[in-house]
């Protein structure tokens, strides 16, 4: 029984606060079925009514909807099935903190949509016929209920059998979704908890797996039954009243005026680039170029929606390939932790379904297929770190292609056709094919990844572990200082009577203390991404074009390889935008372009330089074979063809090697080419010592 709520009170409330919205509802009904009401407005109007709405939502919302019907009748509209959707509850309950006290109350939960069933009609008022065609109506709840007896007092077949009349019954659209806690709010090692949500009528079809939402609803409980035995345990389900899809752009980071002042003060520092770089994984010595690039990746370029409907990605993808033990994984984990929304996954333990999305058939969808979002969907508008990319199965690796360039994930599984968003930066790490790089061999050959995937990375860095007395002594000193600082801290904390003070620890911690606190750096990145949209100045644009054309000019000679492709130019633009964002500047200057050219040149020379000619060759990454190698393969094949004509279709292997050497290809290279041609199936060896083209 409502104490403060009544139909009349809600009529007053709507007349005072929502007159124009109710008028619009009356005009647009039934295309528009809901009126969104802010809880703060109810609280301002009558705090007691707001309190009662939280504690007894069913009766209070019924009064509110009856009030809409009354107002509709005055306006000449029949608003019989209009809904009042309450939003902006002051308190949100964490999914793991939901308790039995919350049953029957109005609560708001926030999280991530994991699964959603398709929208199906659900019966809410079932009309039955007895054998004499008398009608009996039964309101339906969670389980389908048939009448126990006929409503007609004179009916001689009171106990039925009853037949459902579908035409006269009332159906409503219904959907089930499963919401999970946001990953960034979890402490390490915690399993994210989930809650099932019932969604009906005009709220259905609003959300998809991967969406971040705030759901307001009435918490209900249903008794578990196993094999017709009733359990003492009850399952919790949220009966949804309203859905708010959160703006996905770093919504978990709130900036206070003090934070914004600190951010602006940081941006005015002339050494801001150095400070940001030194705040990325300070416990790892060196790698300034890589850390520079990662700082740009964290900021990201500007994603552009073009008038023709196409989209150009702004996210920057980086791949680190290096010898074992040079802290690639540590760098990856630190960066993902720093990103406002980061998901870390390791290649060996990731499948294509776990990275993209999977179709699951379970009791949640009543045996129907439902979509479950994977790591790249959950990292939308954030960063995905994939370690051990070389250890992934090739079919799993191919799932990443679309996510990297189009930034969507298309699913066609079990009759479900869907496109999920995956607008995230990707930071990958991999080991060389043979465990360690051979500095005398072609680097591209040692990267165990398909060219189609490599070409999608904006920057690729090769990290080799080469002994050098000066550098090794600096690294060892850095590592031992970091360990010493940790040892001091552990002694201060755990040894009773220890004389080590906080000041002692702080004095040696300098070596591994980030220049900018991680929390402030996260806020700095979020602020830059929200508020800074740089424009390229004319001189910066001219310099980028000169650099790109200067590289391309090398390929004008028919005998020269193609040095870079348009993909590298797009990467330059994205990186220049990120460089301006670090300064919180809305203009890209020559300094930004110079910085980006330096980083890109380092990356290109490490990966695309043909060791035989010393020239940049884009085919090393985009095709997997440099032009000089292709030319040599053509030479060997023409030699085999000539010799085959001379020796009745078979070319003696020794003569192929000898003629190859005459044309300037050394013996080892010819042998290597022949074995490559054999493995690719273009050449075979019918008898020992002879080769033949297939």
- Name the poorly predicted regions: none
**How far apart are the first and last residues' alpha carbons, in Å?**
88 Å
Task: Please tell me the CATH architecture of the largest domain by its name.
Answer: 3-Layer(aba) Sandwich
Number of strands: 26
Percent of residues in beta strands = 15-25%
Instruction: State Rg.
Output: 33 Å
Please report the first level of CATH classification, the CATH class of the largest domain.
Answer: Alpha Beta
Strand order of the largest sheet: 3-7-8-10-9
- CATH superfamily membership of the largest domain: P-loop containing nucleotide triphosphate hydrolases
CATH fold annotation of the largest domain: Rossmann fold
Note the total helix count.
24
Total tally of structural domains: 6
Helicity level, as a percent range?
25-40%
Largest sheet: 5 strands, mixed, barrel
Shape: globular
* Structural class determined from secondary elements: alpha/beta
Mean pLDDT: 79
